[in-house]
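Q: Could you fold this chain for me?
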Amino acid sequence: MTADTSKGRKISLHTVERLSVYRRTLEELGHEGVEFIHSHELADLVGVTPAQLRRDLATFGSFGNIARGYDVRGMARTIGQIIGTDKVQDIGLVGVGNLGRALLSYGGFEERGFHIAAIFDSDPEKAGRVFAGRRCYGLDDIESVVSDLGLHILILAGRSEGLQSVVDRAAGAGVRGFLNFVPKITTLPTGCFIEQVDISGKLEKLSFLSRDEGR
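A: Sure. Below is the predicted structure, expressed as structure tokens.
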């Protein structure tokens, strides 16, 4: 599967995922005072081959030269422009339970260019209250709030009941991407994308891998 970048180029989603890792690593290097890095050094840090790294980057032009290597800060900025995270994006969050509140307090979203601008919950007692500086809206308001704020990404961290309706209504108002923490598969409207985060499933995988039997 391919996707369009903010520059109109089509790249595979696997490449997008690797570009995100490259950018995060470059930003960390920049904070450490590193100014330039060679392709084989960056490849070692992110766990890909130098050839793969160069292929991913060659599509978008030249990032450095053989003598000095890549400009760390400049390359991080350029990758941000390519994948559309060079400017802060407002996103929404559905579900203000324990998980939802933990996500609200997570500073990593802001660092990566995502700001949770609106939150929603099915509990009428939460509607109108303020959590972590954000007003909570009821699900009946989802279309109007999504449209007014121009939200294109929604985090799903609430109950599984009514999840399909939330997805359909949000998509109708302009949301195209969903980050889903709810252990339930939904039917996606045409033109939308979903990333499933199954924490329990990952723990089950680790449980299997960490068994001592047969070792």
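A (continued): The chain has a mean pLDDT of 89.
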